[in-house]
Amino acid sequence: MKNTKIIPRSQNVYEYPLLIKRILEQSLKYEPNNEIVYRDVMRYNYFDLNKRVRKLANALTNLGVSAGDTVAVIDFDSHRYLELYFAIPMIGAVLHTINYRLSPSQVLYTINHAEDKVIFTHTDFIPLIEGIQKEMNTVEKIIAITDYKELPETSVNIFGKYEELLSNEKDEYDFPDFDENSIATTFYTTGTTGNPKGVYFSHRQLVLHTLGLAATLGSYDSACRFRSNDNYMPLTPMFHVHAWGIPYLATMLGVKQIYPGRYEPEMLLKLLVSEKVTFSHCVPTILHMLVNSPVVEKIDLTKWKVVIGGAALPSGLAKRALELGIDVITGYGLSETCPVLTLSYLNEKNRNLPIDEQVKIRTKTGIPVPFVELKIVDDAGNSLPFDGKSVGEIIVRTPWLTEGYFKEPEKSDELWRGGFLHTGDVAYVEEDNFVKITDRIKDVIKTGGEWISSLELENLISKHSAVNEVAVVGIPDERWTERPHAMIVLKEGETADKNDIREFLQQFVQNGTISKWTVPESIDFVESIPKTSVGKIDKKKIRNDLKK
């Protein structure tokens, strides 16, 4: 290939590194008077947000935090968490968002592995810190986050309180320029085996991810558009993959932001109504909890747009949401991908289809967002056609993928084998570029030479009028290798037995959707289904429990 042409730059040209401070700068341009709201406790505008971020930067500097240091946060979703999203990386330090739903030993592992220097913790998590503080190797100071004046009695040496630290600082700070490839954030995956794995993202990756989201959610004429006139409330914990990166986008757009603190159904519904929330994102479990609330029928949710991720959106839940007027679509990504890779797309024609037809589109995994290169490959790594039939593993490349697992080079090489990030998800892609995940590689049920998608079977069972929740896993079988096992939670006041479920599934056998071997013989009716720390169905625990 002939060499490309490069014209020498003037020495006066400004390089303009893509840093997180660029995102915050935009918040004062268009809608600076829009509010940041925290429960029914605090509200202020973007002028105040910028001042508080600068105060926090001064406080961090006075705490001894410098470029390259790691600062951890354990908090519920709040305006303070949003401030920490910006101030920590903007001074060149690394933000470590701790998953407080991990076990204490796992939390301790992440603190020591990330080499946290300072921890900001909500007072509700001080008992957690008490139990592990003697084994924390690198932590020098602990700052308490609280809505109250008095701190609880504790053996933890609290250096100071968040609000008091800010009150003593100036609201002027000159955020420096530095290499855009500097690490900005880190957090740990909720792996089902071994210790959690640390992933990390640079300033450049986070800025590009924000711009990719802006182009997809704001520019394409589809469902769930996110614009500057929206009122945003995250329902995905801020410790989980930057709350899917939406707080950075919301701040860039200057939209009204509402942070609910601890997830309590009554508070969530109150804020939805009182703050006129129009855009959220969550796992299916949260949406399921809200749409099944006894007061939901009394609330107008016709302006609420919700992106579902973290697990497949069941058809039954999608239909229920649409019947309530909720504009719901599916998104897809991983902790390793920052996270967004795909989003459902509905053109004007599709948005006017009957609900049952819309459900089929809205529950698909979606179309790759701009700048995402996505392939489907077989076991040998060969690319498969986008024909709606060929099933293989999803592999991806895009500017915002983690470069690997922190301090784990072998696992990083495995993640990136062949120059693509391997997701571990099995899918097919239709001719119109819609991705449809059929399962995780580890969750596919292999029975008699046939592969059964646990997700597809869950989706079909969820359509039964008596079914509230369902999980399907493979269980060992001497003759068939594996057979599907269904765990079902019934709706309150509804009844059904195993034969009802099997007979219901026969219609899908008869129309060719599934084979007769897909219908599970083993079915349990339970009060609840095990979930992971981020609200996903915990199939590893289900399989382990079934072995006992």
Task: Give an overview of the whole structure.
There is one protein chain. 29% of the residues lie in helices and 23% in strands. It is of the alpha/beta class. Among the domains are: 173 residues, ANL, N-terminal domain (Rossmann fold), CATH 3.40.50; 104 residues, ANL, C-terminal domain (GMP Synthetase, Chain A, domain 3), CATH 3.30.300.30. Strands 7-6-5-3-4-8-9 form a seven-stranded mixed sheet, with helices on both faces. Helix 1 crosses helix 8 and helix 2 crosses helix 3. The longest helix has 17 residues. The chain starts with 19 loop residues before the first helix and ends with a helix.
Topology at a glance:
Elements: H1 20-26, E1 35-38, E2 42-45, H2 46-62, E3 70-74, H3 79-90, E4 94-97, H4 104-114, E5 116-122, H5 126-132, E6 141-145, E7 160-161, H6 162-167, E8 183-188, E9 198-202, H7 203-219, E10 231-232, H8 246-253, E11 256-259, H9 265-274, E12 279-282, H10 284-291, E13 305-308, H11 315-323, E14 327-333, E15 340-343, H12 348-351, H13 355-362, E16 367-368, E17 373-377, E18 392-397, H14 409-415, E19 421-429, E20 435-440, E21 445-447, E22 450-452, H15 454-461, E23 467-477, E24 481-490, H16 498-510, E25 522-525, H17 539-547
Parallel strand pairs: 1-11, 3-4, 3-5, 4-8, 5-6, 6-7, 10-11, 12-13, 13-14, 24-25
Antiparallel strand pairs: 1-2, 8-9, 14-15, 15-16, 17-18, 18-19, 19-20, 21-22, 23-24
Helix pairs in contact: 1-8, 2-3, 7-8, 11-13
